[in-house]
Every structure is written in C-alpha cells, then in structure tokens.
UniProtKB/TrEMBL annotation:
This is N-acetylglucosaminyl deacetylase, LmbE family. The lineage of its organism: Bacteria, Pseudomonadati, Pseudomonadota, Gammaproteobacteria, Alteromonadales. InterPro entries: LmbE-like_dom_sf. It comes from the Bacteria. It comes from Ferrimonas sediminum.
Length: 248
C-alpha cells in the first residue's frame, strides 16, 4: 500500500540506510521525502543523486549549526514546516536509545529536537510563521537502526537500488575510507575486505567496508534472525501495532 513517508535525518546517510523502505514506497506509488539537518554541500550533491535512485521526490536541507543543535524556536519551526508541507502518514527517524549511545556529535540533542517538532507539528505552534500550512499530526513513527527492532522490511526487490544509492555517497565513503585506514589494523582491514590496501582510493576503501557492514547488518536482521526474509532493514515502531486481525 502506498503511503506518504518522511525521513528526518541528521547527517544524510540515514536516507540510504532507510533506502529500502523509501524505495519500496515510491515503487508502490507512494510519496517518499527526506529532510536532513547537517549535510555539507558535497553531501547534499551526493544525496540528490541517491534520491533519484531511490525514488525520493523531494529533499529538504535545514543547514543547522554543527555542534549547536538544540531546541531553539527557529529549528523547531523549520522541522514543523517540513512536516506540514509533506504531510506524512509515517515518519522514520533515528532511534532514541541508539542515538543516545552513538558518539556522533549532535545526535543526542537532535533526537529531542525531532521528537519535539513532531509533537508541535500537529498542534497550533508557529501558525503565524507559516499561515499557509495547517497542523499535521503524525500517528505512526518508526525508528531506524534500533537497538531492539520489532519489525523489518524485506530488501529482496530493492537491494540493488539501495547499493547503487550508497555508491552515490562519495564524500561519506571517502571520509569512511580514511577513517578505516587509520583505525583498523592491516589484519582487520584484510578480514573485512580482502585486498583493502590495493584499492585505488579512499572512496573505494570506504565503500567496500560499508558494503561488508551493510550485508552483515541486513543478513543478521534477515536470515540470521530466523526471518523469512534473506536481507531485511530493521525498524522499531513506536507504540502498539493496531491490527484488525492477526497477521502472519
């Protein structure tokens, strides 16, 4: 069934990490959107390319202050505006527990900002700043990469699209390649990616390690968890599942 789905991300790679769900929705005739807080110009370019692959029809870049994400009214209004413009049935965003434990900067305050904006978007907050947009409550919220998933999405039909979209993130993969070259021993590099040292660039090094990580994560959520799915994106739905009848 097609839906209106909005991803609220911090740095940008979240859009591709959730690319399976977003691409499936677009392929089913739905509308997929993404809003990113802190993407640098080169990442914005890469994300536009990835969005085309995944069928995401509109991207929003908030350009908040790095290291300064907080609950200031301007930031709340910016996210409320995106939610009211896109009017999603479903919002996907980072998992509160995972983001609290994550050592990436800004993720912890971003989580509070995101949840506050979702709540305010459905109320009469900020109407004078955007009189053309009506409040929009969002009933369904999914957390990506959760510490304790309670559902998953099969990637069988969109795995290649997700991989192709990750290929587009050249700035992130280059950064990752430099990071893994410094952080991992030669033995660890070789174990993750045979021939790591001979790869032609930091981009290729980062991409091949990311490929191994993605396959491991999605296999673990899929076959590794005795799922009927081979490769699966993990999510945690906020609140109870509301069913008219039991589902298989």
């Amino acid at each position: 069934m097609s839906q209106r789905i909005l991803l609220l991300g911090v740095y940008g790679m979240e859009m591709v990490e959730c690319g399976g769900a977003l691409a499936i929705n677009a392929a089913n005739g739905g509308h997929s959107f993404a809003s990113i807080m802190l993407a640098r110009p080169e990442m914005q370019r890469d994300l536009h390319q990835a969005a085309e692959v995944l069928g995401i029809e509109q991207l929003f870049f908030n350009e908040f202050e790095r290291g300064g994400v907080d609950l200031r009214p301007d930031y709340k209004l910016a996210l409320c505006r995106v939610i009211r413009q896109t009017r999603p049935d479903i919002i996907i965003t980072q998992d509160p527990q995972h983001s609290f434990e994550d050592l990436d900067p800004d993720r912890r305050p971003a989580m509070g900002l995101i949840l506050e904006a979702i709540a305010l978007a459905g109320r009469d907050y900020g109407l004078e700043a955007m009189p053309e947009l009506q409040p929009h409550p969002v009933a369904t919220l999914y957390y990506m990469s959760p510490s304790q998933p309670n559902c998953s999405v099969s990637l069988a039909t969109v795995w290649q699209k997700k991989e192709q979209a990750m290929d587009c993130l050249s700035s992130q993969m280059t950064f990752s390649g430099q990071h893994f070259s410094e952080r991992l021993s030669e033995q660890e590099q070789q174990a993750l990616c045979p021939g790591f040292a001979e790869l032609p660039s930091d981009y290729h090094k980062g991409r091949e390690v990311q490929r191994a990580m993605d396959k491991a994560l999605h296999l673990h959520t899929g076959l590794g968890s005795h799922s009927r799915f081979a490769l699966a994106e993990p999510y945690r739905r906020q609140g109870l599942f509301e069913l008219n009848e039991l589902m298989v």
